[in-house]
Specification:
CATH architecture: 3-Layer(aba) Sandwich
CATH superfamily: P-loop containing nucleotide triphosphate hydrolases
Helix content: 10-25%
CATH topology: Rossmann fold
Number of helices: 3
Number of domains: 1
Length: 100
C-alpha cells in the first residue's frame, strides 16, 4: 500500500501543493491531471523517492520510503512522460525492452 501523508512541494517562492494525502491499495490507480507547471511530474518524482518533499512523507507498506529504499525500489516501476515507451508496442513488450 502507498500512503501519502500531508505532502508539500515548494519550488522557489511558489507552493505547488500542500496538505496532500491519499492511500492507494493493490490494484488501484492514480490519475493526475493539471496544467503545465502544476506539479504533476514533481509529485510523481516525490512518490518514487527521486526528490524529497518540503514536508510530509510517502510510505510504502507502512514504512517511510526514505528508510525503506531497497524494498521500495524493488517493487517500483516509474515510466515518466519523456520515457522511451513505444505506442505501437504492448506494455509487456515495452517492459522487456526497458529491462534489458
Amino acid at each position: 500500500m502507498l500512503e501519502v501523508i500531508d505532502l508539500e512541494c515548494i519550488r522557489g517562492d511558489r507552493r505547488l501543493f500542500s496538505g496532500l494525502g491519499f492511500t492507494l491499495g493493490p490494484g488501484e490507480l492514480l490519475h493526475l491531471q493539471g496544467h503545465n507547471g502544476s506539479g504533476k511530474t514533481t509529485l510523481m518524482r516525490m512518490l518514487c523517492g527521486l526528490i524529497a518533499p518540503a514536508a510530509g512523507e510517502v510510505r510504502w507498506q507502512g514504512e517511510n520510503i526514505r528508510h525503506a529504499r531497497e524494498t521500495f525500489h524493488r517493487d517500483l516501476l516509474y515510466a515518466g512522460h519523456k520515457s522511451a515507451i513505444k505506442g505501437d508496442l504492448t506494455g509487456v513488450e515495452n517492459l522487456r525492452i526497458a529491462c534489458r
